[in-house]
Specification:
With 710 residues, the protein is an alpha+beta fold. Among the domains are: 193 residues, Biosynthetic peptidoglycan transglycosylase-like (Penicillin binding protein transpeptidase fold, Orthogonal Bundle); 181 residues, DD-peptidase/beta-lactamase superfamily (Beta-lactamase, 3-Layer(aba) Sandwich); 43 residues, no CATH class. It has 24 helices and 21 strands. The longest helix has 27 residues. About 2% of the residues have low confidence.
Length: 710
């Protein structure tokens, strides 16, 4: 009989088992160490620093706009309703407060389910594991063993670093809710138009319901699925004792009425885009990322004044559009050419122009009355309100700061300012008679041009005050030809902040060189500020997410006119307001505060302007069509088309802010002087007289020779 071989002894089995376990342990440990190489360190875990949206605030504390790649606004846990916290725990991790980052019960259940099904059907991620995945890109999102191990390692580290409430707070501020929103505050704003603290029980359940699949369960795109998921979450909340039966039934009976399907529009879109572009130039210098650093940008804009400006402009747009519509509809040839009537039906285009349908984009630059509006604080240059185009057709083109348009007669004050600076008094008289100018046409060819006054009138000797009061073109041109050369007027304009190419020709007097609206309003503000120019600016300070000030911005100012010249110009333009082309602001729109201003109209009624100011606010409105040369309509002057919006705004703005009535400061160098009301010379006893103001030293010294003493 053969001798049987002995099997290995018990000791050898134990020894081999220990070796196997040791090698396996070393392998597992090595695998964990290998995976841990690119996982976050303790320092990274302790410095929770998610991407946050940058918020742009108005000067009165309103949120105007947010900048983000992933929209996330951090809120503390005590600002999140308890039922929102309960809903997350009930739906996503009911043993959250009892595990240490890994829920062993869920792990065991997942192993059983997945083994029996021979597929991946059951997950076991805790809130902490989800947070680890959301916070750290190195973990990844693929459903495999490697990712799970990384999650577990990081989750355990997070649990060792933070309290449960801190983990829940981080989770609610980082999880993706769909539609570009991350965190409960951003989601509440996008889906319900409210802050997280205002969420109701059913709204919290809707938000938690989307977490397993934000695209799949979106209440905007898939309301039926979202409603079913919400009801599932509500049932879990009830079953785990987080709400009563009555609360459950009440919430379940609600629909999706509070969901906002279109995102809320930001306030002051042209202004916030202006700020965004400025910030993009600053971010490298300040070493910040405006789309992820959660900055707080505090601006100069007053949301109350912005609302007033938009409302008043819409009123004027409606009226001006009606005038343009009637003009074009009565001119079949022009209307057919501008409206592409060979392509589009005439009736449809007319309905669009009346506002009954949105106008085709390719027709907007020809058939829409456009506008721009700027309001500034003349003492500092702070932008108080900005509109860069029609509020009902917002676009990327900000006409307040990007559009160059001919200013027409609103350029005349630069001519008068130059004359005053050269010692000419307001009583200087010029002949109100036709003149001939050499001008360059659009083809670059020089030709003769005979300008005329707006009303076609002519006259005799006319003072500078009267010339500006009635906006006489002939007087302005004669000033350039006889008193101050065009190149000197150009220097004045440049000194007062005009950066565009001002052509130094005689026609400069009529505003034929293009300007930016914001620059010419800032130039007018110089008069209100006693000759001190303040560069327009829109940001006062930038803070980081913790409230530390990164950068502050202050007024940039320069004295460019004497206080006496500025006051005389203001006084001249007060005459325009009280008894000249700006008089409608008084008797039609009941704006009676001390104010100065000027109308402007370009040839063919292509541009209509009004720019004016009080001691507290300088503002300017412009109306026209984007494609230059298209007339607003006969009679659509600055007085008719632009002044109404300006006057209504100024009246409401001063009243809304409860500004006290203020008067322009009169310098010591201004004197009152009695003159002959006919010759404007020093009067005799026989002269009819009037009072006029002069810069000391420019008052008349010649005695009147018409009214002699006998």
């Amino acid at each position: 009989m053969a001798k049987m071989k002995k099997g290995p002894s018990l000791g050898k089995i134990v020894w081999r088992s220990l070796i196997f376990v040791g090698i396996s342990g070393i392998a597992v440990l090595s695998f964990i160490i290998y995976l841990s190489r690119d996982l976050p360190s303790i320092e990274q875990l302790e410095n929770f620093d998610p991407d946050l949206a940058t918020r742009i605030y108005s000067s009165d504390g309103q949120i105007l706009h947010e900048l983000f790649l992933q929209k996330r606004v951090f809120v503390e846990l005590d600002q999140i309703p308890q039922h929102m916290q309960d809903a997350v725990i009930a739906s996503e991790d009911k043993r959250f407060y009892h595990h240490w980052g890994i829920d062993l019960y869920s792990v065991g259940r997942a192993i059983v389910v997945n083994s029996l099904s021979l597929s991946y059907r059951q997950g076991f991620s805790t809130l902490t594991q989800q947070l680890a995945r959301n916070l750290y890109k190195t973990i990844g999102f693929k459903e495999n063993l490697t990712r799970k191990v990384k999650e577990v390692i990081t989750a355990i580290q997070i649990e060792r670093t933070y309290t449960k409430n801190e983990i829940l707070e981080m989770y609610l501020n980082t999880v993706h809710f769909g539609h570009g929103t991350y965190g409960v505050q951003a989601a509440a704003k996008r889906l319900f138009g409210k802050n997280a603290t205002e969420l109701t029980l059913d709204e919290s359940a809707i938000l938690v319901g989307v977490l397993p699949g934000p695209a799949l369960y979106s209440p905007i795109n898939h309301p039926g699925r979202a409603l079913r998921r919400r009801n599932t979450v509500l049932r879990l909340i009830k079953d785990q004792g987080f709400c009563t039966e009555d609360e459950y039934n009440e919430a379940r009976a609600l629909g999706l009425e509070t969901v906002i399907y279109e995102p809320l529009k930001g306030k002051a879109p042209y202004f916030t885009e202006y700020i965004r572009r400025f910030l993009e130039k600053e971010d490298d210098r300040l070493n910040v990322n405006i789309y992820s650093d959660g900055l707080k940008v505090f601006t100069t804009l007053d949301s109350r004044l912005q609302s007033i400006a938009e409302e008043m402009l819409i009123r004027s747009i409606i009226k001006n559009q009606e005038v343009l519509n009637n003009r074009l509809w009565n001119n079949e040839e022009e209307f057919s050419r501008l409206a592409y009537l060979g392509i589009y039906p005439e009736d449809t285009v007319k309905m669009m122009m009346k506002g009954e349908l949105p106008l085709y984009e390719e027709l907007r630059n020809k058939l829409l009355v456009q506008t721009s509006f700027i309001a500034l604080d003349p003492k500092t240059g702070k932008i108080l309100a900005m509109v860069g185009g029609r509020p009902d057709y917002p676009d990327q083109y900000n006409r307040a700061v990007q559009s160059k348009r001919q200013p027409g007669s609103v350029f005349k004050p630069f001519v008068y300012t130059t004359a005053l600076d050269n010692g000419y008094p307001v009583t200087k008289q010029l002949l109100n008679q036709p003149v001939v100018l050499n001008v360059q046409n659009s083809s670059g060819v020089w030709e003769k041009w005979m300008p005329r006054n707006y009303d076609g009138s002519t006259g005799g000797l006319t003072t500078l005050r009267e010339g500006l009061r009635t906006s006489l073109n002939l007087i302005a041109v004669r000033m350039v030809q006889e008193l101050v050369p065009a190149k000197e007027v150009k220097k004045t304009a440049i000194r007062m902040g005009i950066s565009t190419d001002i052509r130094a020709v005689d026609a400069i007097a009529l505003g034929t060189s293009e300007v930016y609206p914001i620059e010419i309003v800032a130039a007018y503000a110089t008069y209100a500020n006693s000759g001190v120019y303040s560069k327009p600016f829109g940001i006062t300070r930038i803070e980081d997410r913790y409230g530390n000030i990164i950068q502050e911005y202050f007024p940039l100012q320069e004295e460019v006119l004497s206080a006496e010249t500025a006051y005389i110009m203001t006084n001249l333009m007060q005459t325009v307001m009280d008894a000249g082309t700006g008089g409608r602001a008084r008797w039609m729109y009941n704006f009676y505060r001390p104010a100065a201003g000027k109308t402007g109209t370009t040839q063919g009624y292509s541009d209509a302007w009004f720019i004016g100011y009080t001691p507290q606010i300088a503002a300017g409105s412009w109306f026209g069509v984007d494609q230059y040369g298209i007339s607003l309509g006969i009679g659509q002057s600055g007085t008719a088309a632009a002044l109404p919006a300006w006057a209504r705004f100024m009246r409401e703005a001063h009243d809304t802010l409860k500004m006290p009535i203020a008067h322009f400061v009169r310098p010591d160098g201004i004197i009152d002087f009695e003159i002959c009301s006919v010759t404007k010379d020093k009067p005799t006893q026989a002269c009819p007289t009037e009072k006029e103001i002069f810069i000391r030293g420019t008052e008349p010294t010649r005695r009147c020779k018409v009214h002699r003493n006998y």
